[in-house]
Prior knowledge:
This protein has helices at residues 77-85, 165-169, and strands at 5-9, 17-19, 27-41, 48-68, 99-103, 106-124, 130-142. It is mainly β. The protein has one domain (5-34, 54-152). Strands 2-1-5-6-7-4-3 form a seven-stranded antiparallel β-sheet, covered by helices on one side. It is flat, with a radius of gyration of 25 Å. The model has no long low-confidence stretch (mean pLDDT 85).
Amino acid sequence: MLEKATLICIDDKSKSIDFMFNPKELSFEGNVESNENKGSRSEKSGKPKVSFSNIKSYAVKINNILIDTYETGENVLNYINFFKNAVKFVDNKQRPPIYKFSWGKQVYLEYCFVEKVNYKLTMFLSDGTPVRAVIDNLSLKETDSSVMDDSKPPKTEPDRKKDSQNSRLGKKQRRQ
């Protein structure tokens, strides 16, 4: 029996996405940003000196996820909509939903978001109902658990009634 892969939505478990796939491969990409200093070269080899700026998040690409509802006649968009909602912002937050990506017992990304989803509808019933879709590319990007910290205090507006040049200079205002 083929095990389902799961994008477990950490924000709202009801928005988790289960999907069947049997990939030929999972593609992982990690990156270190660097800059070559054009004028600065090592004395021994003459190669440019490199400075390292930061480490980029891992990205995982999953290709060719087939979703087929032909036998039941159900609209396949009911399943595709979960993936479409994954590239929208969560209510009252300035970010997309955060997921854990696992397949079977293996957790591939502890915290990630859907960076990109490309899909096409490939089969329709005679009434136009789409019953087969292929997700050509599902791109996940790793993130840090701190993105879940929504406890930052809201920004408050300054009290304009008490704001004056004198108050900014530390002088007491006289009442008139």
